[in-house]
Design brief:
By secondary structure, the protein is an all-alpha fold. Helices cover 82% and strands 0% of the residues.
C-alpha cells in the first residue's frame, strides 16, 4: 500500500518550493552587504582538516540520532542495523528541515519504518521517547553551559534578548507540558479539557468533538511513552547518554569553524554555549529549518566573536555543515529510499 497519498505529495512539494524561496531570500539578504572577495578569501584560507572535523561531528550527530532510537528498539527485542539507523535519521532530518518547527520529521519516519516491518505503534512510542529525551538533554546542557559561561553569554545575549527569552519560554513550556503529560496525566487532562472548552466558547475550535479525539490520542501516546520508560529504564538511560553526546557534537561545529579560520581567544566551552544560545532562540520558530532567522541571529552573535571580516564566512560554513549539506544528503537518501520502496511495492503486486 502506498503510504503517501496525492495530498501529502503536494504538501511536500509546496514545502520544498517554500523552503527554496526562503533559502534564496536568505542568501540574498545575507550577502547584500558582504564583501564577496574577503569572504571567498576567508573560505579558501580555512583549514580543511578542521572543516573536516566539523563535518565528522555532523556525521556522528546524524548517526547518534538514529542510534538513540535503535537502543530503544533493541530493548524491545527489535534490533536495528547501522545502515538503517543512519537511513532513518537522515529521513527524519530531511522532513524536519522542510517543515515548520521540525514538525514533520518523526511522523514521516514512522511511515518509512512501517514499510520495513516496524509497527507504527512501536515506532511512534520510541520516537516520542527520543523527542522527550532530546528536550531534556537540551535543557540540561543549557543550564550547565549558560551558568558555566554566564558573564560571556550574558554579554552576547543583549542583541537578541527578545528572541532568546521567547525561545527559552517556549522550550520551558514544552518541557513542562511533556512532563505533565508523562507523570501527571489526570492534571494534564483536566487542564487540556478546560482549554478546549474555552477555545470552543471563543469559536477558535470549530469542531470540539474532532479536537477531543485528537487530544485523547495525544494523551494516550504520552501514556504509552511513560509506560515504555518505566518498563525499559536501562535502554532509556543509554539513549539519554547518546542524546547528550549527540547535542555536544552539534555544539562543537561552530568551534571547529572558529579554529579553522585561525582565530583564538574564545574557548570551546564558550563557543558551545554561544551555539546553544542560538539553538534555544530559534529552534521553536515556525520556519522550516529556522532558515532566515538562524542566519540573522548568527550574524548578531558572531559579530563580536569572528569580527566583521569573518562573520559572513562563519555563518555560511557553520550553516553549510550543520544544515545545508545534510539537507542535500538527506534529500537524496529520502528520494532513493522512496524509489526503492515503490519498486519493491510494484514487485510484490
Amino acid at each position: 500500500m502506498d503510504t503517501m497519498n496525492g495530498k501529502t505529495r503536494r504538501n511536500i512539494l509546496l514545502q520544498l518550493l517554500f523552503l527554496a524561496a526562503l533559502i534564496g531570500a536568505t542568501f540574498w539578504w545575507l550577502l547584500r552587504d558582504c564583501d564577496m572577495e574577503t569572504m571567498l578569501a576567508t573560505l579558501r584560507g580555512a583549514s580543511p582538516w578542521l572543516i573536516g572535523l566539523g563535518l565528522l561531528c555532523m556525521g556522528l550527530y546524524i548517526y547518534c540520532g538514529g542510534s538513540c532510537a535503535a537502543v530503544l528498539f533493541h530493548g524491545m527485542g527489535r534490533p536495528m542495523g547501522p545502515l538503517r539507523r543512519l537511513k532513518y535519521h537522515l529521513i527524519e532530518f530531511f522532513f524536519s528541515a522542510i517543515t515548520p518547527s521540525s514538525s514533520g520529521g518523526q511522523p514521516f519516519e514512522v511511515l518509512f519504518m512501517r514499510f520495513d516491518g516496524y509497527k507504527a505503534t512501536e515506532s511512534s512510542v520510541v520516537l516520542l521517547v527520543v523527542a522527550v529525551l532530546y528536550k531534556i538533554a537540551m535543557l540540561v546542557l543549557f543550564f550547565f553551559l549558560y551558568f558555566f559561561n554566564f558573564s560571556f553569554l550574558h554579554a552576547h545575549v543583549a542583541g537578541i534578548w527578545f528572541l532568546f527569552l521567547l525561545g527559552l519560554a517556549l522550550n520551558v513550556i514544552v518541557i513542562a507540558v511533556i512532563l505533565l503529560a508523562l507523570y501527571a496525566q489526570k492534571a494534564m487532562r483536566r487542564l487540556c479539557d478546560g482549554c478546549l472548552r474555552l477555545l470552543a466558547r471563543l469559536r477558535v475550535v470549530r469542531r470540539p468533538e474532532t479536537a477531543q479525539e485528537k487530544l485523547d490520542s495525544w494523551l494516550a501516546s504520552f501514556h504509552d511513552c511513560a509506560g515504555f520508560m518505566r518498563e525499559h529504564p536501562w535502554p532509556v538511560v543509554k539513549s539519554f547518554c547518546i542524546v547528550l553526546f549527540q547535542r555536544v557534537l552539534y555544539l562543537l561545529i561552530p568551534w571547529c569553524v572558529y579554529e579553522a579560520m585561525g582565530l583564538s581567544g574564545v574557548t570551546v566551552w564558550q563557543m558551545m554555549g554561544l551555539q546553544l544560545l542560538l539553538s534555544v532562540s530559534v529552534e521553536m520558530m515556525p520556519l522550516p529549518g529556522a532558515v532566515g532567522i538562524s542566519e540573522s541571529v548568527s550574524l548578531v552573535l558572531y559579530d563580536a566573536i569572528f569580527g566583521a571580516d569573518f562573520r559572513y564566512s562563519a555563518v555560511i560554513l557553520t550553516r553549510g555543515i550543520s544544515y545545508y549539506l545534510p539537507l542535500l544528503v538527506s534529500g537524496v537518501v529520502t528520494l532513493g529510499t522512496r524509489a526503492a520502496q515503490l519498486r519493491a511495492g510494484t514487485a510484490r503486486r
